[in-house]
Amino acid sequence: MDPSLCTNCNLFFGNQEGLCSKCFKESRLKKDTLQTVSEILNTAPIILEEAKHAPQSSPDRCATCNKRLGNINFRCKCSQYFCTNHRLPEEHKCTFDHKTIGIRKLSEENPVIQAQKFNKL
């Protein structure tokens, strides 16, 4: 088994798929970025469909099931009104990002506290 030069740059000896370590890392990075971009593009129609959901004009009907709301209606943070069955964000596929807001709120309310270091004697 004779060592052969890299098939891409012809500067170093290649061992992984005929590529040197530098070219192999670059090709792996290209493959990973192409894969992530394709995943993002595949999920883009789903995101666009959620963004199309415009704010509701009248609070007298549920935005999900179109059920007439009486005196009891629930307004979500996504600025729409829902019945008792669809009041939870999981039930009406809420577009508001509750997780990020919660993390931001926790980080603002609970700052990192560090004790002062003791002086050595």
UniProtKB/TrEMBL annotation:
<dbReference type="GO" id="GO:0008270">
    <property type="term" value="F:zinc ion binding"/>
</dbReference>
<dbReference type="InterPro" id="IPR000058">
    <property type="entry name" value="Znf_AN1"/>
</dbReference>
<keyword id="KW-0863">Zinc-finger</keyword>
<protein>
    <recommendedName>
        <fullName>AN1-type domain-containing protein</fullName>
    </recommendedName>
</protein>
<dbReference type="InterPro" id="IPR050652">
    <property type="entry name" value="AN1_A20_ZnFinger"/>
</dbReference>
<dbReference type="InterPro" id="IPR035896">
    <property type="entry name" value="AN1-like_Znf"/>
</dbReference>
<dbReference type="Pfam" id="PF01428">
    <property type="entry name" value="zf-AN1"/>
</dbReference>
<keyword id="KW-0862">Zinc</keyword>
<feature type="domain" description="AN1-type">
    <location>
        <begin position="56"/>
        <end position="102"/>
    </location>
</feature>
<keyword id="KW-0479">Metal-binding</keyword>
